[in-house]
Amino acid sequence: MTKRTVPIVAPLAFALLAFPGIVGAQDYPTRTVKIIAPVQPGGGVDLVARTVAERLGKAMGGSFIVENVSGGGGVIASQAVARAAPDGYTLMVGYVATHGTSPAVRKLPYDAVKDFSPVAMVGGTPNVLVVYPSVPATDVKSLLDYLKKNAGKVSYGSSGQGSLTHLAMEQFKQAAGFDAVHVPYRGIGPAIADLLGGQTQMMMPGLAAALPHIRAGKMKPIAVTGLKRHPLLPDVPTFEELGYKGFDGVQWYGIVGPAKMSPDIVRRLNDEINKTLAIPELKERLAAEALEPMPMTPEQFGRYIQADIARWTALARERQIELTE
């Protein structure tokens, strides 16, 4: 009896050792899963991390916790995750800065594509072109007339050199052919404060950050990025419908892990996250940050990351934008 069962058991044991994901995906998670938010608490990245952790914990019957690791514009957290064991117990909110704009404008100690496993896209919010209320413009045409009459005299703020708020405005400058002075800040908060005070005249922040001030009448919305008008600003046209192609970039947020994660674990996480994105309650929670769900397969998310890096790399080279620090 024993001799007859060995040929069957031995190949099976070998197969399980050779492909640990077969067993791991079924039992996963058996211990606490850490989701790293590469920022300080608060804001869109932190919201996504905590929302995903809460939902996955309920759906998968395990413990998912959030750890905030800020510093270096997300570099410290990204490097730590890239070096972590690819066992599914260390994940991260990869977003437009860590896996889009930063790889386009600076040399990083990690490869945003090769060093990570794309797990799931969560959602995105458009950028909105806004102006100080005293600027005599209500649409792109009147704004461009004003800018061309005041070439080099109008300034725009951003959350930092090489940030999405910087690159999005440079994209508009390139497409529309006007000149404006860039004033980089250390974060979106100070940039918005100076726009509200009239120290700068334009910005292209994320809609979530701008919306309260738009509603208060402290900044005027001119146009939004993305392929369709945003439901929170139904009267504001997209750049696309105004004839500016390629303005479909958004501030996006997703979940990534170290490279070479088990495809089965990746697929299971992706399935659960995509299920939660269809829940009305979650859509409302994300809507508080002007985030729209963007469910994708891991393969689609991987291609999205590569395309976003390529988009901003091409623009950065054209506009000679590079961070040397």
Structure write-up:
- The chain has 325 residues and is an alpha/beta fold.
- The protein folds into 2 domains: 2-125 and 252-319, Bordetella uptake gene, domain 1 (D-Maltodextrin-Binding Protein, domain 2, 3-Layer(aba) Sandwich), CATH 3.40.190.150; 128-242, Periplasmic binding protein-like II (D-Maltodextrin-Binding Protein, domain 2).
- The chain is 45% helix and 18% strand.
- The protein has a 6-stranded mixed beta sheet. Strands 8-5-9 form a 3-stranded antiparallel beta sheet, covered by helices on one side.
- Helix 7 (164-176) crosses helix 12.
- The protein is globular.
- Mean pLDDT is 91; it is low at 1-10 and 12-23.
Topology at a glance:
Blueprint lengths: L1 H17 L2 H7 L5 E5 L5 H18 L3 E5 L6 H9 L6 E6 L1 H9 L10 E11 L1 E4 L8 H10 L5 E4 L5 H13 L4 E4 L3 H9 L5 E2 L3 H9 L4 E5 L25 E9 L4 H15 L2 H8 L4 E2 L4 H22 L6
Parallel strand pairs: 1-2, 1-3, 6-7
Antiparallel strand pairs: 3-10, 4-10, 4-11, 5-8, 5-9
Helix pairs in contact: 2-10, 3-10, 5-12, 7-12
Annotation keywords:
single chain, 325 residues, alpha/beta, D-Maltodextrin-Binding Protein, domain 2, 2 domains, six-stranded mixed β-sheet, three-stranded antiparallel β-sheet, 12 helices, 11 strands, globular, disordered N terminus
Quickly describe the structure.
The chain has 325 residues and is of the alpha/beta class. It is built from twelve helices and eleven strands.
Number of helices: 12
Global geometry:
globular
CATH class of the largest domain equals Alpha Beta
CATH topology of the largest domain: D-Maltodextrin-Binding Protein, domain 2
Strand proportion? 15-25%
Q: Please give the number of β-strands.
A: 11
Order of helices and strands: HHEHEHEHEEHEHEHEHEEHHEH
Tell me the strand order in the biggest sheet.
2-1-3-10-4-11
Rounded to the nearest angstrom, the radius of gyration is 22 Å
- Count of discrete domains: 2
Spell out the CATH superfamily of the largest domain: Bordetella uptake gene, domain 1
| Structure classification | alpha/beta
